[in-house]
Amino acid sequence: MINLFQPQVGKEELDAVAEVFDSHWLGHGPRTKAFEADFAEHIGVDAEQVVFINSGTAGLFLALEALDLAEGDEVVLPSLSFVAAANAIGSTGARPVFCDVDARTLNPTAEDVERSLTPRTKAVIVLHYGGYPGDIVRIARLCRERGVALVEDAACSVASRVGGRAVGSFGDLAMWSFDAMKVMVTGDGGMLYVRDRELAARARRLAYHGLAQPSGFGHAKVSHRWWELDVPEIGRRVIGNDLTAAIGSVQLRRLPELVARRREIVELYDRELAGLDGVRTPPPLPEGHESSYYFYWVQTSPEIRDEVASELYAAGIYTTFRYAPLHKVPAYRAQDEVLPASDKASGETLCLPLHPGLADDDVRTVAAALREAVEARHK
């Protein structure tokens, strides 16, 4: 089977894990701090503003918890988002309000977001679809003008930039995911960024039980009776550890080569699928935009999309659609929302295999199978 995603890990990552084993310190420690510092430099912020956590989902929950949302508040997000974002909103008692997207880029525009704002809107969450930055500059400006917090779901966008500025640094808070399917992986893991330094310190406390200071070995040298607890507010344990951080540091060093290979695959798909009637490939990036190339998506007529996916699967090629529209999920009680572009895109879009482990021949095999399946249905 030609997989949709496949992590790229090897001897460097194994050696880094072996060093952690040899240190006899597996938990949150020096390698976690080093990874945070390196990642902060990667996105152009200070290390105190980032927290390595155990998943991107934990980052979304933590970000919204830090905003002190409550019942009656609203948070706007695109319907074509991962379920974790809506769940994080619901966990606070606030209500998710789904906005539409551009049917080609699958990213919301500033106008899409603005149409969904109300006096009850406290925050906006923006997903950068497939690693493509989207309209983030204008959305960030809109949120500042309206006094609304902006949370960037940069799970797919660890190397994405606009005008040289890292995606994730435009908003008030952001998170990245490093799970086994992402551009860079730690197995499970994520990073949280918080612009406001006091709020960043609070988020760090909330990520570790709400403790104002550690109570273990690391604090013994600076505190008498270090075992006593100082818990100003209730938190949970969602911090990362040195094992996964060691993998992350290697992956971060390798990130340019991983993204470069993804770009080559995207360019090859573009060439192989050029001129194929009935198939639209991703639109070109605007000037100054850089992508992480997490998804490569094609769009066909909805009458054939599912049949094409089934035929590719039978040929040993796994495809899917990410992300199913959340306004159709009963739990969020938003089925009456009218979001025509989201509905259109969700019926037409198919994500093709994209990861650095693909050989050029694999990409040509996928493209040829797609061409054959589509052409057979357009005769």
From TrEMBL:
Positions of transmembrane segments: none
Gene3D superfamilies referenced in this protein's UniProt entry, alphabetically: Aspartate Aminotransferase, domain 1, Type I PLP-dependent aspartate aminotransferase-like (Major domain)
InterPro entries with a match to the protein in the record: DegT/StrS_aminotransferase, PyrdxlP-dep_Trfase, PyrdxlP-dep_Trfase_major, PyrdxlP-dep_Trfase_small
A Pfam family matched in the record: DegT_DnrJ_EryC1
Name the UniProt record assigns to this protein: DegT/DnrJ/EryC1/StrS family aminotransferase
Listed GO MF terms: transaminase activity
Cofactor: pyridoxal 5'-phosphate
Family under the similarity heading: Belongs to the DegT/DnrJ/EryC1 family. L-glutamine:2-deoxy-scyllo-inosose/scyllo-inosose aminotransferase subfamily.
Taxonomy of the source species: Bacteria, Bacillati, Actinomycetota, Actinomycetes, Kitasatosporales
Keywords: Aminotransferase, Pyridoxal phosphate, Transferase
Transferase in keyword set: yes
Signal peptide as annotated in the record: none
Domain of life: Bacteria
